[in-house]
Each structure stands twice: as structure tokens, then as C-alpha cells.
Amino acid sequence: MQLLRTKGMLRVGYNIFSERKEKENLSLSFALWRSCSYLCILKFPNNQLHMKKKHLTEGQRYEIFALLQSGRSQKDIAIQLNVNKSTISREISRNSDGRNKSYKADLAHRKYIKRIKGRTHFHKFDSSLQQIVDAFLKADFSPEQINGLLKTNVKEYVSHETIYQYIWKDKRTGDKLLFKHLRRKGRHYAKRGSKTNGRGFIKNRVDIDERPSIVDQKVRFGDLEIDTVIGRNHKGALLTINDRVTGLVWIRRLSGKEAGPLTKAAVDALMPVKDLIHTITADNGKEFSFHEKIAEKLNILIYFAKPYHSWERGANENTNGLIRQYFPKGTDFGDITQEQVMRVQNILNSRPRKRLGYMTPKEKFKQLTNLDYNAVALSA
Length: 380
What we know:
Elements: H1 2-24, H2 30-43, H3 58-69, H4 74-81, H5 85-95, H6 105-117, H7 127-138, H8 143-153, H9 160-173, H10 214-217, E1 223-230, E2 237-243, E3 249-254, H11 259-270, E4 279-282, H12 291-298, E5 301-304, H13 314-324, H14 338-349, H15 361-369
Parallel strand pairs: 1-4, 4-5
Antiparallel strand pairs: 1-2, 2-3
Helix pairs in contact: 1-2, 2-3, 3-6, 4-5, 5-6, 8-9, 11-12
């Protein structure tokens, strides 16, 4: 049997040698062929070269190395090893030397072993493991904490996703009430940036990256930011619009965050300065889903900041903080009037600002446009 294995290994090398010699009329290093053949014999006495397994064997990697050295294509190697071409392509891509992109069998197999050892191997979530998880949950440990502790100390563990599924299944059909030990107790929070999250997926939105660079230079009046301030129990809201350069602010009371009323309020507030404004930058709230109507009515361009990048509308966030000085969090906007709102608007537009050299927004507006604040009915 050993002799048959030896002849088989030598045949692999000889075929390679003969084909290349005939094709290229080259004298392939006989030492290379001999060393590869001997390595196959010594390392794989059970003739593992062509064993049909899910993963390539070490013997197959030596055969790939020899075939590559002979100039064979990946397609030919795949046929020789009776595997898919993509398997050979993936093997060479993953396990080649990162420095010179050359493929070496011993290095390739070491990289494969290292990758396999680094994989996560989860344990079957049987009743004994469930009892351990139950105990940790009742001690108010999170699924992530349980997963980490088991992985570190017990070596038999399941993923935190599996634990969550176990909790939700118990909530629907069981009686352990495990969900009550979670911090959020089953409330769904969409992952940021996911397609199930309504923010950032407004139809026909234009990203802030496409906004003209002059907006960031802050040298002109008319580049605005828009947002809402929400009242107590999410009842009622304030529409806030501010100019990035002058700090001028428009505030309007809303009955809620619906897109329709907000659109009308924004257009009505800005119509007196329609000919002076250029852009509006908004966040990704659904209340701005009618942005195209605003853009059409005012003949301007509207851009959207990236989801959860509030710093891209820093001036607006600061303005909302100033407004909260007069309408603190918890204020029921159903109890305030538009007259009260306009009073706060006038105060903010008449307040000296350090960043403006202690000019007021009204004064800065006049400096840039050579127009009087009241003459264009900014507070209308």
C-alpha cells in the first residue's frame, strides 16, 4: 500500500513536469517536483490528497502549490482536485503570502488553521444551559453580559441573539417572565442606519454632501437650517428655522409633527424673504417628507444631514437650546400662543451675539443685505 501511495504521489509530480516540458520546452526544476512529491508522501501517508471533505486538506494545498509552480491555471487545478474553480480562487486569495502574493502550501495551511481556531463555536442551547441563562437573567444580567461570561468561564455558550430569541419566545408562550429583567423590557429600538428605521429614508432626499461649498463658508445670508422642538408627551411642537450666518430665527407653533402643517408653516414664515434665501438643511425626520413642496414654493434647494449627525446642523441645535430657555423641556405647547412664540423670536433676533462681534441678528442681516429687518416683514 505504501508503494502504491508513493507511485500515486510521484505521478502527480511527473504529470506536471511532463506537461510543462512539452508546452514550454523548459527544464522544470526536478528538485521542486521531487521535494513536493516527497512532502506529500511523508505528510499524508493515508493518501489524503483527494479525500472529499468540506475544506481543502493540507495535501491538497501542496498539490495546488505544485500545480501553480508548473504554470497550470486555476481552472485546470480545480479539475485536477475535483473541486469548484471558486474554491481554488478563494484559497489562493485568502491564504497567499500578504507581502508578495505568492502561494506557499505550508503558510496557506497555517493561515487556514489559525482562521478555523478563531471561529466561534456555539453550544447547543439545551435545558442545562437554559438553566444557567435563566439564573443570570434573573440577576439582571444582559444577554451580552451572559454571552461574555459563559464564553470566558464555561466554554459552553450561545450567542446573545439566541438568548434574546429565547426571551421573546418565553414572553409569547412561557411563564418565566424573563423579559422583565431586561433594561428595555421588550421595547423595540431600530438599529441606526437600518432600513426599518424611518429616519434617513425620505423619498428623493438630497444628501448634505451635494450641498454647495459656499454654504460652509458662511459668507452670505439665506442658507438656513430647519428643525422642530417637541412638547410634553409629544403633543405639540415648535418649528424652528435659523440663518447660518446672521443667526436670525423664525419660530412657529405647530399642533404636531405632521408633514402637512409643518410644510405650510415653513412656507408662510419664509415667503417674505423668498428672494433672499438659497438653501435649507434639515434632519431626517418624517415631518420633512414634503420637502419638495417647500422647495417648489420658495424656489430653493433642500439638503438633508446624515442620520444622527446633528453637528451638521450645529447652528440649529444651538438655536433650539436658546429657545428652551423660554420653553423648557416638559412644556405643553398646547398651553402657549403664537403671540408668546413671536415674543421669544423677537427677543432672540434682538439679542447681541458674541460670534457676531456683539451685533444682533437683525443688525447682521442689515449689514449683509442692506435691508431693514422690519421692512421685509421678517417677523410676519
